[in-house]
Design brief:
Length: 483
C-alpha cells in the first residue's frame, strides 16, 4: 500500500548534517517518495556554511551507503527534493534570513505554506532554536506549522516544564510532536491491537489473572562513542523516563473511548498518575565492569573512552513499580534496562497466575509453569505464548510449549520507526507522539531517584545486571526472564 495522500509542505530539518538526519530521517524520507514527485521539499539547516551541492553530496553518500539506492537515483532525488540553509551562529538576524529563504523556496516550489520544523539537534540547542524560530515569526506560516522535538525532552521535571513553557510560548500543543522513536515500532503499536482487538487477552489483562509484568530493554553494546552525552544522562534518563515508561503505559492503560490521539494519550497519562511514588528499596542502579559479551572480552564502563575513571553514572536500572488502580492493584511491574547485558532484546513479558487449585495426580504445583505471554519488541518482533500440554504417554506429565508468531515470517521486513513517525507528522496524527503532560508525569515519577540515586552496584559485562536486581523481584516468588 502506498503512502496516504499528503498535503504539500516544506520540511525544515534543523541539525541536517547530523547523525539522525543522515542515518534515519533521509532513508525514511526517501522511502515516502523514492521516485517522481514528493509531497515535501526538504530544507536542511545547520550552523556550518555548506553550499547546496555540498549538502546534497553528503546526503547522497548517506543514502547510498548500504547499497540499497543506486548513486544516480539518489543524486536525482537529492537534486529534486533537498535544499540547504546555514543558520550561522543562530543570531536573530540569522533566523530572519532563514525565514526569507524559506519563503523564497516555497515560492519557487509553488508550495502552499505548510511547514514541518524538525529539531534534530542536541538537546542543548532546543531552547535557543525555539527562541530563534519565535523571534523570526517562524512558528506561524500561511498554512499549518508543526514542530517536531527529538528526545531527550528535558533532563528532569524542572527542565521539562521549562521547555514545555518555552514551546507553548510560540506553539499550541496541537502543533507539537515530541518523539519517542519506540512508539514508531510496529510491535509497540500492535500492543493496542493485540490488547483491544482480542478479547481472549483483554479479559485476562488485570489483577485477577496477571501475576506480574516484566519489561526489559537490554543492550549488549557498551557506551560506544556516546560517552559525552551518556555521562550526563545515565540509564534512568536515557531509557527509563522515555522508552520504558511508554511501554509501561501502553501495556497498562485502559481501553480509550476512540482510536484518537488525545483519547489514547489521556489513558496513558492516567497510568502514570496512578503509579505509586518509587521507594529507594524498589530501585537498583548498576554499572558494568570488565567482562565478556558473546565471546569477546570488553572493558568496564569506567575504562571506556571519554568516561570519567571515577564515574558514578548508572548503566543499569531495575525498578519495581505499583499501579494503584482497579485493574492493577497488587500486580508488580518490573522494569529493567542496561548496557553490556548478555544480548540485545526488548520485550514485555506478562506472567499469568497459576491455577487456583491443583488436581492432577502424581504431579505437584511446582511442576507447572504458569502461562505467560512475551511480546517481543526487538529483534524478532512478534510474540510467544507459553502454555502447558500433556506429554504423550500413560502418565499425566506436563510440559511447557511455546507458540510463536513472528512478524517477519508473515509480513516480511518491517519499516523503520522513523518512517512511521515522519509520515504521521506529515499527516498531522499525534497518536504516536508524547504529549506535554505525559512527559512531565514521567519525569515526576523518576524525580526521587534523580534527587537521591540508590547505591551503585557493580556487575560484570555480559551478566544480567547486579545480583541485587534478583532480590527486587523474589518477594512474591517472581524471577526475571533469562534471555
Ligand atoms: N542519532 C540517532 O540515532 C538518534 C536516535 C534517537 C534520537 N536522537 C536525537 O536526535 C537529536 C540529534 O541527534 P544526532 O545524533 O543527529 O546529533 P549530532 O550528530 O550531534 O547532530 C547534531 C546536528 O545539529 C547541529 N548542531 C550541533 N550543535 C548545535 C547547536 N548548538 N545549535 C545548532 N545546531 C547544532 C550540528 O551541525 P552544525 O554543527 O553544523 O550546526 C549537527 O548537524 C538528538 O536530540 C538526539 O538525542 C538521535
Amino acid at each position: 500500500m502506498g503512502p496516504p495522500e499528503l498535503a504539500r509542505h516544506l520540511l525544515v530539518v534543523f541539525g541536517a548534517t547530523g547523525d539522525l538526519m543522515q542515518r534515519k530521517l533521509l532513508p525514511a524520507l526517501h522511502s515516502v517518495a523514492p521516485v517522481g514527485d514528493a509531497p515535501f521539499v526538504v530544507v536542511g539547516v545547520a550552523r556550518q556554511p555548506l553550499d547546496e551541492p555540498g549538502f546534497r553530496a553528503q546526503c547522497v553518500a548517506s543514502l547510498t551507503s548500504d547499497g540499497s539506492v543506486p548513486t544516480g537515483d539518489a543524486a536525482a532525488w537529492a537534486a529534486r527534493h533537498l535544499h540547504y540553509v546555514s543558520v550561522g551562529a543562530g543570531a536573530p538576524e540569522d533566523y530572519q534570513r532563514l525565514s526569507g529563504e524559506l519563503e523564497r523556496i516555497e515560492r519557487e516550489e509553488a508550495l502552499p505554506g505548510n511547514r514541518v520544523l524538525y529539531l534534530a539537534l542536541p538537546a542543548a540547542a532546543f531552547p535557543p532554536t525555539i527562541e530563534g524560530l519565535g523571534s523570526a515569526g517562524l512558528h506561524r506560516s500561511k498554512g499549518w506549522t508543526r514542530l517536531v522535538v527529538e528526545k531527550p525532552f528535558g533532563r528532569d521535571l524542572a527542565s521539562a516544564r521549562a521547555l514545555n513553557a518555552l514551546v507553548h510560548q510560540f506553539f499550541a500543543e496541537t502543533q507539537v510532536y515530541r518523539i519517542d522513536h519506540y512508539l514508531g515500532k510496529e510491535t509497540v503499536q500492535n500492543l493496542l491491537v493485540f490488547r483491544f482487538a482480542n478479547m481472549l487477552f483483554e479479559s485476562a489483562w488485570n489483577r485477577d489473572r496477571v501475576d506480574c509484568v516484566e519489561i526489559t530493554v537490554a543492550e549488549d553494546l557498551g557506551v560506544e562513542h556516546r560517552a559525552g552525552y551518556y555521562e550526563t544522562a545515565g540509564a534512568l534518563r536515557d531509557m527509563v523516563q522515555n522508552h520504558l515508561m511508554q511501554l509501561l503505559t501502553l501495556t497498562a492503560m485502559a481501553v480509550p473511548a476512540q482510536y484518537e490521539a488525545d483519547q489514547i494519550r489521556n489513558e496513558k497519562v492516567k497510568v502514570l498518575r496512578s503509579l505509586e511514588a518509587i521507594r529507594p528499596e524498589e530501585a537498583v542502579f548498576g554499572q558494568y565492569g570488565p567482562g565478556t559479551v558473546g565471546a569477546a572480552a570488553v572493558p568496564g564502563y569506567r575504562e571506556e573512552p571519554g568516561v570519567n575513571p571515577t564515574s558514578t553514572t548508572e548503566t543499569y536500572v531495575a525498578l519495581r513499580l505499583k499501579i494503584n488502580n482497579f485493574r492493577w492493584q497488587g500486580v508488580p511491574f518490573f522494569l529493567r534496562t542496561g548496557k553490556r547485558l548478555p544480548t540485545k532484546t526488548t520485550y514485555i513479558h506478562v506472567h499469568f497466575r497459576s491455577p487456583p487449585v491443583w488436581f492432577f495426580p502424581a504431579t505437584s504445583p511446582g511442576e507447572i509453569t504458569a502461562n505467560s505471554l512475551r511480546i517481543m519488541v526487538q529483534p524478532d518482533e512478534g510474540f510467544e505464548l507459553a502454555i502447558e500440554v500433556k506429554k504423550p504417554g500413560h502418565e499425566i506429565a506436563l510440559q511447557t510449549q511455546r507458540m510463536h508468531f513472528q512478524y517477519s515470517e508473515v509480513f516480511g521486513p518491517l519499516a523503520d520507526a522513523y518512517q512511521t513517525l515522519i509520515l504521521d507528522v506529515m499527516r498531522g496524527d499525534q497518536t504516536l507522539f508524547v504529549r506535554a503532560d505525559e512527559v512531565e508525569e514521567s519525569w515526576r515519577l523518576i524525580a526521587p531517584l534523580l534527587e537521591h540515586p540508590p547505591a551503585l552496584r557493580p556487575y560484570p559485562a555480559g551478566a544480567w545486571g547486579p545480583t541485587e536486581s534478583t532480590a527486587l523481584v523474589t518477594p512474591g516468588g517472581h524471577h526475571w526472564t533469562e534471555g
